[in-house]
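User: Show me a protein chain along with its predicted structure.
Assistant: Here is one chain, sequence first, then structure tokens.
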Amino acid sequence: RKKGYEKIDYITPLFTDILKDTYGIIVYQEQIMQIARVFANFSLSKADLLRRAMSKKKVEILKTLEEEFINGGIANGYPYETGKKVYDLILNFANYGFNKSHSVAYSLVAYKMAYLKAHYPKEFYSNLLGSVLGSSDKTKEYIDELKVLGINVLPPDINKSYEFKYKVVNNGLIMPLASIKNIGGVISSYINKERLNGNFKDIYDFFARIYKKTNNIKVIQSLIYAHAFDSFGYSITTLINNYETLTNYATLEND
């Protein structure tokens, strides 16, 4: 319609000023209020009632207002069929209608996010994934999108991972410590604070330093199974089989 390929149909010239910005298509809730005012002589409060019924999908209220709307149109000289046609359009509009006062703000946010996603995908998804840490479904959804984009999601690293945010690196994103099951904010925060004294040199150094805060087997095993110690060069099986030895070492070191 904008390019002139299709004729613009305003239904009645009465709606021309109301619908000209959207080429004869009802898009905004405010347009419905205006249509109800000029076509059926609805008061502003009743027009707002119609708007709210649409936004909340309250079918019973919409059906009740239909008779008033059509009768109002008849009183203004419009046949029943025209009133029915207009009201049916309103009901169809209720499925996708939007608040005009929000449209510019939403459009700007959508435009900026699309720009960041296109030009800075790793940074974009780093923040997006960080916002859904507690949701496995959303996390999987975004990680699947990253796979399509060819961006790697790397397992947590005991010396590199942030607490809650996915870390941007050249070859992808490194998962945060808090994304690991059984590793809460308290433990991940402690690991990061301990790391300020210097990176963990090896698995022995980690056990000795972390033992001061926790010797919870679930916490340590969760880190092992999440590949957080891969950089130390030991397999998961080796670490699990030697857990008791490492714990004994940490106990002696702290004594």
